[in-house]
Each structure stands twice: as C-alpha cells, then as structure tokens.
Specification:
0% strand, 443 residues
Length: 443
C-alpha cells in the first residue's frame, strides 16, 4: 500500500471516528462527512499519476473530473430519490393521510405496538424498499409514541425490520436489486431460502427490545388527535393512495421505462403536488399556506442529505483506489472456501462502509460458476444478499434506512452503538446459523 493510499484510508477512518463521536465533539456529522469527502478526493488528485498511470500527465486531471462526475451522478440519483420520497411522505403526513394507518396500529400496549410495527415494516419493505418504508413508518410512529426515549427504541426496530425485510426480496434493497439484475440470484431462490433467516434476524432483536418495554401508554398521551387540514376524509384518502401507491409504482415505472428510480419518484411527487394544489384551491389561504408542497419542501432535513452525499462520495474514493477490491481479495485468500465467514465479515463491513460498492466489488471479483457455491442461487450469492442487507443495521450509518431515521429522529451514533448494535449482531448471527441449517437439511 502506497503512502498516499494509506493517508486516504487513515483520513477516512478518522472521519468515521469523528462521526461516531458526534455527541462528544458537538460538531454536526454532515460537516465531518463533507470534510472527509473533500480531503479524500484532494489526496486522490495529488497522487493522480500514481493511481492512474495509464493516463498521460495532461489527461489525468480531466479523467479524475470525469470520475467525480460519474460518482456524483450515482450519488445524486440516490439523493434525489431520498428527497422525493421524504417529501411525498411528508405531504401525506401533513394532510392527515396516515391517520387510518395510525388507527390500524392503535393499541395502548407498548409491546403489542412494537410487534405490530416490526411485522408491518418487515413485509412492507419487501414490497416497497427499506428506505421508503423507514420514512413511512417513522411518520406513523410519531403519531403513536410521544416519549422520545421509548420512540428511539421503536425507531431502531424500524431500521432493523426494514433492512431484514429488504434482504429477502429482489426489490427490497439496492444490493438485492443489483444481484438480481446481475442474474446471480433468482426471485424464487432468494424468497425460499433467505426469507426465514431474514425473519429470524428481525424476530430476535424485536424480542430483546420488547423486554425493555413494559406497561401501557397513558390515555391522555396515546394517539393524540390533531387537526390536520380542511380536507375531507375522501381527499385525505386520495392523497394517501397517491403517495403510498405511487411509491409502490416506482419499481414498476423503472421496469417499464428503464429510467432510474429517482425519475419515478419525481413523477409521483409532481402528480401529488398538482392534486394537493387543486384541493387547496377552494380553501382559505390562511389555512393552507403551511401545508402546500412548496412550504413542506423547506422542512426537508438538508443536513442529512449533505451527510449522505459526503459518505457516498468518500466511499467512492476507496472504490477508486482499489481498497475495497483488495479487501475482498484478502478475505478470499485468508478464508478460502469458507463462504459463511467471508460473507459474515462482508456483512459487518457493510455497516461501516456503504454496502453498494462492497457488493459491486464482490460481483466484479467473484465469477459466476456453472455449479457450486458461486453458481446462480449458490451459497455465496444468497449469503451476500442476506449479509449485506441485514449487516447494515449494526451501525446506524450502515444503511440508507439508518441514515434517514438518524436524520428524522436525531439519533446519535453513540446511542445506537451502545444500545442496539449488539442486539442486531445476535439476530444477524442467528440468521446465518438458520441459513446453514436450511442448506444442510433441505437444499
């Protein structure tokens, strides 16, 4: 490893440490992520000739600019999807669209609410995706639980359930979509073999967290009724189905048009925007100004968006200098043939760095074989789908769902690591064990 490569890795690690110690340093995590991103790319530019020896000195700067634009394009697609989804859910929530979902989950029992939210999040994330599901469920959670201390436990379970639910569905997580499109896993294979391990990885943390919740909610505090808007029940229902139904339609739109997912999100947002403006047309201006889409969009947490941008672009540097690929090759050499250990470690790593480049690196590094562990629906690929998806729950910055919930509920890295990480790890290992038993007995 060259000196510059080592410097990039060290600064990346220092940046992550700074993010982890946000509650101690009192410096916003987005500022550290952006600083980490810019310094890493600057170091890459300084050593341009070392990292890209195939380009002449007068062309290498232009090449790096193209590389940055390429990675920025990938990151922008994710960020626009995130902003669009957050805005859509905020529109539905502000105009009372989630009221009947709130009523469906209604219970005074803290443990019953936990289990209801766990299962709804788990299965909804398989249909939508873990990111969108997390946003929807957090909005509903805010209407159900007023105590911040208790709400954080429910929010943590939403992250766990969303990532576990996304792992067994070919459209539930970005990594499973990548593996599915690549053709290394099939819909039938991942549903039949990964469903039970994913379910176990959600049930065990839910059981442990349920032991920390006792009693019932106070009647005065439970499900407070708030005035929403001048809209009728029919109008609120239309907004809900346009919003949530539109989110469900995004994967279909992508399949039909082959356009990026964020284009589908923007389509849904545009339609919902037009409809709400029509509904507001005959309503008093004083009652509607705060609930118009143009005003709602100003409430989007831009610091979370900037944090996500910094993380994605910083990880892109590690991908460019070959650190992620070298890490995968090192794992392969050290644990040759033991795909349970290799994927188990990849899952842990996916909680530290973004699982998308990790999975992309694995797909480029490991060839698809005609038979054996590397064959279509083989042990390696299915375990990769499970570990990369579920493993991201170990740290709150390890998945898109975690980053969004962190921004919405202002959860600190330290609190999550202290209270939740070990619980996720127990469920994660239990799921791997269940998959091993499945393979040994049934497949």
């Amino acid at each position: 490893m060259s000196t510059l490569t080592l410097c990039i890795v060290v600064f990346f690690c220092l940046g992550y440490l700074g993010i982890a110690l946000e509650s101690v340093t009192r410096v916003n995590k987005a500022a550290k992520a952006l600083l980490m991103c810019v310094v890493c790319w600057t170091l890459l530019m300084i050593g341009a000739s070392e990292f890209y020896p195939q380009f002449p000195a007068d062309e290498v700067v232009h090449h790096i600019s193209e590389v940055i634009e390429h990675h920025l394009g990938d990151a922008a697609g994710t960020l626009f999807f995130l902003m669009g989804a957050m805005t859509i859910v905020e529109i539905v929530d502000t105009n009372g669209g989630f009221n009947f979902v709130r009523d469906a989950l209604k219970t005074r029992s803290k443990r019953k609410l936990l289990w209801r939210m766990a299962f709804m999040t788990f299965f909804l994330s398989a249909i939508l995706d873990n990111l969108t599901t997390s946003i929807v469920m957090i909005m509903v959670l805010r209407k159900l639980v007023q105590s911040r201390e208790e709400r954080l436990l429910y929010a943590a379970l939403i992250i766990i359930s969303a990532n576990s639910g996304g792992a067994f569905s070919p459209i539930g997580d970005v990594t499973t979509i990548m593996l599915w499109i690549k053709g290394v896993i099939t819909t039938q294979g991942v549903l039949t073999e990964i469903f039970i391990p994913s379910l176990v990885s959600m049930l065990i943390p839910a059981l442990i967290l349920s032991l920390q919740l006792k009693g019932k909610f106070d009647k005065e505090q439970n499900l407070p009724k708030a005035e929403v808007s001048q809209f009728t029940k029919a109008q609120r229902d239309i907004i809900f189905w346009l919003g949530v139904g539109g989110l469900c339609f995004v994967p279909v739109f992508k399949t039909l048009t082959h356009l990026p997912p964020f284009m589908g999100i923007l389509l849904v947002l545009a339609i919902l925007w037009v409809v709400t403006e029509i509904f507001h047309y005959n309503t008093s201006e004083e009652d509607t100004m705060a609930k118009r889409v143009s005003d709602i969009m100003t409430k989007i947490d831009l610091s979370t968006i900037m944090f996500f941008l910094g993380i994605l672009m910083a990880v892109a540097v590690l991908q460019e200098i070959g650190v992620l690929t070298a890490l995968g090759e090192g794992l392969n050499e050290t644990f040759s043939g033991n795909y349970y250990v290799i994927n188990g470690i990849i899952g842990v790593l996916s909680s530290i760095v973004d699982n998308v480049p990790l999975v992309a690196g694995c797909m480029g590094m490991y060839p698809v074989a005609a038979e054996g562990a590397m064959a279509v629906d083989g042990i390696f690929w299915q375990l990769l789908a499970y570990c990369a998806g579920v493993g991201g729950s170990m740290l709150i910055i390890g998945s898109a769902a975690g980053v969004v919930v962190m921004g919405l509920e202002k959860i600190t890295f330290g609190w999550y690591m202290k209270k939740i990480t070990w619980i996720v790890f127990v469920g994660y290992m239990a799921g791997i064990l269940v998959y091993w038993v499945e393979r040994a007995l049934f497949f």
